[in-house]
Amino acid sequence: MIKELLGKLLAPAPAPLDDQDARLALSALLVRVGRSDHNYSDVERDRIDRILRTRYGLDVGGAILLREQAEALEAEAPDTVRFTRAIKDAVPYENRMGVVEALWQVVLADGERDAAEDALLRLSTNLLGVSDVDSARARQRAEKAL
């Protein structure tokens, strides 16, 4: 499953992903941000699980399973530039905006803004084609949600 999704994402002209593959790819990006400071904490995993439950209407077990699959995909995914650009090409803008807000929630989950997390979030947001203004608005919504 992971190998197949990576093949789709890295195809020369990626086609739009089906809902299940898009969920997994976007969830893997959440994991990548959580891991970026080399301190992938329980609080960040819990936040990702809550995001997945809310975003996709999953129960606790379903969210944990999706996160675990996303962790496996993230570990196999190429560098952030190629991975994020592939997501941009395969996922509609409105879905990417929601992901940016979720990325901010993961960054802010442990109460600390780490420089590595901030840098990865700025890079990812840019590569997803989301403007700085929209990202700032997403951060503000994420701060209010916490």
From TrEMBL:
Top-rank taxon of the source lineage equals: Bacteria
The species this protein was found in: Phaeobacter italicus
Q: Which residues form the Co-chaperone DjlA N-terminal domain?
A: 23-140
Entry protein name: Tellurite resistance protein TerB
Spell out the CDD domains in the cross-references. Answer: terB_like_2
Pfam families to which the protein is assigned, alphabetical: TerB
